[in-house]
Specification:
This protein is α+β, with helices and mostly antiparallel strands. Helix content is 51%, strand content 19%. The strands form five sheets. The chain has an eight-stranded mixed beta barrel, surrounded by five helices. The protein has a six-stranded antiparallel sheet with strand order 3-2-1-6-5-4, sandwiched between helices. It has a five-stranded mixed sheet with strand order 11-12-10-15-16, with helices on both faces. A hairpin with a 5-residue loop joins strand 8 and strand 9. Helix 18 packs parallel to helix 20. The chain is elongated, with a radius of gyration of 38 Å. The termini are far apart.
């Protein structure tokens, strides 16, 4: 072998060795690279699965907190406390604001009210009112456990799932309920199926004096069914998230055991997890086979791919946080986000020590419920989105607009001008100047606005929001379509009205209210032919409280149906003592909207066995103007039962003559505005004469109200009025004094000879 050949062989051997080394290195590098890539893919898949497990678990926990938050919106409310404690329960109010509301709005399958003795007093199952005791007893052991926890505190044997709700209450300290409200929420087995079971105390949001003894509890059951899981999966971007009794095997589906908080096995949660690592392997391995020079590129792709997978998870987390802080319908920040931002602005104001102001405005769309009732909830949602868009267009970019839910919006503005509150109020008014397009219909809406401003009205979110709410309440109380800026007098007035409302509710329950009766005197013989029942309230410490004070409060507090029913029943009972007298009772428009008047009267007729022809129901134009067709049908039914109907305050409205044509009244009561000083008002006398002629031509009796002088009484007799009523004869007296009052009017007919016009003129001249 020549040196050259030997060198060649040696070179080839070296080359082979080098090739082998390079090949081995490449194989080893490729194997290491494949191993790295395989591990990275497995790790990415594992991380994704772990994160998705945590997201699913957090979503289930959040669902418990969400149910409690939904309950809180009603349970921590003065009206809820008042109506839950009322006996008997106003079932229509409870249905509208609790039972049916939670079923229709949030899908609560079962809703219970538990009294202070831990006994069920109300229940709805699947939106239908049910026997509370029977429905509760079906799961009493489990329900008692939840109720007990809500009363005593956390049950260590049950998993805590209400942390998000508990933590959020620190931001709602403006609500009185947040201070002493109690709650419990768990995922439990109901009829062998998982469900969110949550209980929360029904406590006041403003007036602690409303609560008598241990608070009632609101208990809800929300089944974790297919729709529920679809909603959770949609929020987590896991479209195939489901629940099954058995574990799913194969197909890349992940099955996780689902255990209720009491340890009961509820089946398995199934979904197809994301596998970012699998695509890595399929893409990188062919490049590894192509050569070691592709290793760098593969590594780059791997890292880039991993970054994208991590980015997807980060995006999902950001989306979840956005959903937690924004309203689903309008896309605006929700109450929680608003409170956070308000706190930040107030902290910044303190830290910078400038003369800036933070303005908070509450906006409530007036009569929004009418749109929902007449056009449907879809139209209501369209209107809400229209209002949100209009407000965004009207407000500046620096203003922070939020939706609190329903028809409530809030605005936060930071400004340096002392007129910032007035400027904001004017801008908000402009948003409602034009009508809103709802399904092609142009609807004119108004809004009530309440405004509070720091530092004048407080330096905490709780103070500003509470004061803005008080100003809003004041605006609604003054007739709606108003923008009110908070002042100290408003708070005092609200407290006074709250106090009267609480005491009126207690007086009604204790049946401390009384009826007084003012006589109606016949012009023919001067005898008492009837009495009008008038409600009176003698407060034990405040003395006599005028109906002009407590009746509007009763209307606002929703007490008028109960108050009206009380008046009718008491009048029926006391009327038995005067079998030959007519008894007049006033009917308000509220009684037509919230009371089954016909059923009520039929029940009272059977109970008191009274002649219906002795009862005269007095109505005003307001009754006929509100849902006139429906109210007219009710009045016709009442009249067909034998009762009499009188048109009260005739002449003060706009359409009295039209109603005389459209409906057959038994009596017309001429308003005192026409009676006062009638002997000195020729034109008024001419009008009265025309009314008397018209009424008698239609077969109606004519009653003159507000007669206070002998001259007024004489003129009314002269023009042909049938009956007289007023202080000239008597003020309203208790039922016990009616017999004595009648005796005073028992005198000969000759004494009641009407005066002539000549007599009246002579009396004036003398």
């Amino acid at each position: 072998m020549t040196p050259s050949s030997a060198k060649t062989v040696h070179y080839k051997n070296d080359l082979r060795r080098l090739t082998a080394v390079i090949g081995a290195a490449l194989v080893l590098f490729g194997a290491v690279l494949v191993a790295i890539v395989a591990y990275a893919g497995w790790s990415a898949n594992r991380t994704a699965i772990v994160r998705e497990r945590q997201l699913v678990e957090n979503a289930l926990d959040q669902s418990v907190s969400s149910v409690l938050d939904q309950q809180k919106a009603i349970a921590w409310w003065d009206d809820a406390v008042a109506n839950a404690q009322r006996r008997p329960l106003d079932l229509d109010w409870i249905d509208t604001n609790m039972g049916l509301y939670f079923f229709e709005t949030y899908g609560h399958d079962e809703v219970f009210i538990i009294d202070s003795a831990n006994q069920p007093i109300y229940a709805t199952v699947n939106g239908e009112r049910s026997d509370a005791v029977a429905a509760y007893n079906a799961h009493r052991a489990m329900f008692d456990r939840i109720v007990g926890e809500a009363r005593r505190g956390a049950d260590a044997s049950l998993r805590r799932r209400d942390r998000a709700f508990s933590e959020s209450q620190g931001n709602y300290s403006a609500l009185l309920g947040a201070s002493f409200g109690r709650w419990a929420g768990h995922i439990m087995s109901v009829d062998g199926e998982p469900a969110v079971v949550a209980a929360i105390s029904i406590v006041p949001n403003l007036d602690a004096n409303l609560l008598r003894g241990e608070p009632h509890l609101l208990l809800s059951v929300v089944k974790i069914d297919e729709a529920f899981m679809a909603q959770v999966g949609g929020s987590l971007l896991i479209p195939d998230l489901g629940l099954s009794t058995d574990a799913v095997r194969g197909g890349g589906v992940l099955s996780e055991a689902f255990v209720a908080d009491d340890g009961t096995d509820m089946g398995f949660l199934n979904w197809t997890p994301r596998q970012p690592g699998r695509s890595l392997l399929l893409f990188i391995l062919p490049l590894v086979v192509a050569g070691v020079f592709g290793a760098g590129w593969l590594t780059y792709l791997m890292i880039n791919r991993l970054k994208r997978a991590s980015g997807d998870l980060a995006d999902r987390e950001a989306q979840s946080r956005h959903q937690a802080l924004h309203d689903a319908l309008s896309g605006l920040p929700n109450r929680h986000h608003f409170v956070e931002h308000l706190q930040e602005q107030l902290d910044n104001l303190v830290q910078t020590r400038n003369n800036g102001r933070v303005v908070v405005a509450y906006i409530d769309v007036d009569r929004f419920k009418d749109v929902n009732d007449t056009m449907g909830h879809a139209a209501g949602d369209t209107l809400i989105m229209g209002v949100a868009k209009r407000l965004q267009q009207t407000l500046s970019r620096e203003d922070f607009l939020s939706r609190f839910g329903g028809d409530e919006f809030a605005v936060l503005r930071c400004a340096n001008s002392p007129d910032a509150a007035n400027e904001l109020a004017e801008r908000l008014r402009k948003a409602f100047e034009e009508s809103f397009d709802v399904y092609g219909q142009h609807i004119k809406m108004t809004a009530s606005i309440g405004i509070a401003m720091s530092p004048d009205h407080g330096m905490s979110p709780q103070e500003l929001m509470r004061h803005a709410d008080i100003a809003l309440y004041q605006g609604k109380n003054q007739g709606r379509d108003k923008a009110m800026i908070f002042c100290a007098e408003m708070a005092a007035e609200v407290e006074q009205r709250r106090e009267v409302e609480i005491e009126l509710h207690a007086a009604l329950e204790a049946r401390e209210l009384k009826l007084h009766y003012q006589p109606l005197v016949s012009c023919a013989d001067g005898r008492v032919t009837g009495v009008e029942a008038l409600l009176r309230w003698k407060h034990p410490t405040k003395g006599d409280i005028s109906p002009g004070v407590f009746v509007p409060i009763a209307e606002e507090a929703g007490l008028m149906p109960a108050l009206g029913a009380f008046v009718i029943e008491r009048a029926f009972d006391e009327a038995k003592a005067w079998p030959d007298l007519e008894v007049s009772i006033n009917l308000s428009p509220v009684q037509f909207r919230h009371v089954d008047l016909v059923d009520l009267l039929e029940g009272l007729l059977k109970k008191y066995d009274i002649d219906p022809s002795r009862i005269v129901f007095e109505v005003t134009e307001g009754v006929l103007m509100e849902s006139s067709d429906r109210n007219r049908q009710i009045l016709e039914h009442v009249r067909s039962m034998g009762f009499k109907i009188a048109l009260d305050d005739f002449g003060t409205g706009y359409s009295s003559l039209r109603y005389l044509c459209d409906f057959r009244f038994d009596k017309i009561k001429i308003d005192r505005a026409f009676v006062t000083g009638i002997h000195e008002r020729k034109r008024a006398m001419t009008i009265i004469q025309s009314v008397v002629t018209l009424g008698r031509g239609l077969g109606m009796e004519i009653v003159a109200e507000g007669v206070e002088t002998e001259a007024e009484a004489s003129v009314m007799r002269l023009v042909g009025v049938t009956e007289l009523q007023g202080f000239f004869f008597s003020q309203a007296v208790p039922a016990a004094d009616v017999a004595r009052l009648r005796g005073a009017f028992e005198r000969p007919k000759a004494e009641m000879k009407p005066a002539t016009l000549t007599d009246l003129r002579a009396k004036r001249l003398s």
